[in-house]
Design a protein that fits this description.
The chain has 273 residues and is mainly α. The chain is built from 11 helices and 2 strands.
């Protein structure tokens, strides 16, 4: 009972923080998601055993901050697109820093550093372009990101309920024994229902766009979840961290959106939205 109360309270705080940051403007959004980005990256480095090596963590976190801030400035038209070229310095500087190390597992450390940036930082940086979409004349709007997040949360809830009540056929037992095909189908079904009305609630995109985004959230959300479960299984850890009582770490809360946001971005760019 105590764990349920903790889980509920920390979940409410998380939702208030995320939704509040989206509603209260672009700078608060940037500050909150930059913090989430850095915390999730540190948790990832901890899972992979890299957190004890400051020569990897400090450059990795610095690169995360640089990439996210540059993406925000370019997406918001505060800086020109040419400033994004500075991100090319990230691998160059990381390799130069590595040259001064005499550690035997240098390549492995660099590989994990880059993996964390690709796995966490780039997907979260893409969100900057989703809050300044072309369909809003590149002005700030919370509606696209909030709509996608709502689909992810509804899908997670539907999958949990359907899996708990009806789950018998294992989806991916090698990685996550509790996930089932019934949960996958239940989550997708529950996510598609509000997609038909999301245009009436959020506007900005067409009904077809919202339905496609709901399908993306249902499909790629589960792969994002499974990928983090796989990383934790390799690391022999139950959670990525303990900052959220009853939920684990920050990475545990955002694992689905790390796959959903980039794919949603690709769809919207191709669709000219």
């Amino acid at each position: 009972m105590r764990n349920l109360i903790q889980r509920t309270l920390s979940g409410i705080v998380y939702l208030i923080l995320i939704i509040g940051s989206l509603f209260l403007g672009k700078y608060l959004f940037a500050a909150v998601f930059l913090l989430i980005c850095i915390m999730a990256l540190v948790e990832f480095y901890n899972l992979t055993g890299l957190s004890r090596e400051s020569m990897y963590v400090i450059p990795g976190v610095t690169a995360a901050g640089l990439l996210f801030i540059l993406s925000f400035l370019v997406a918001s038209r505060t800086a020109g697109f040419q400033w994004l070229s500075l991100s090319v310095l990230v691998p160059v500087l990381l390799f130069i820093a590595a040259l001064y190390s005499k550690k035997p597992d240098l390549i492995k450390g660099l590989a994990v550093t880059f993996l964390g940036i690709g796995y966490i930082v780039i997907p979260l940086s893409v969100m900057n372009y989703l809050v300044f979409p072309a369909c809003s004349n590149n002005g700030y709007t919370h509606r696209v990101v909030l709509g996608i997040l709502a689909f992810v949360w509804i899908n997670d809830t539907g999958a949990y309920l359907a899996g708990t009540l009806l789950g018998h056929h294992k989806l991916f037992p090698r990685i996550s024994p509790k996930k089932s095909w019934e949960g996958l189908i239940g989550g997708a079904f529950l996510t598609l229902i509000p997609a038909f009305w999301m245009h009436d609630v959020m506007g900005i995109l067409t009904k077809t766009d919202w339905i496609v985004l709901a399908c993306i959230a249902s499909c790629f959300g589960v792969y994002g979840d499974l990928s983090e479960s796989w990383i934790k299984r390799i690391a022999d850890k139950k959670d990525s961290g303990s900052i959220m009582p009853g939920h684990g770490g920050v990475l545990d809360r955002i694992d689905s959106i790390l796959f959903v946001m980039p794919v949603s971005f690709i769809y919207l760019v191709i669709a000219g939205k």
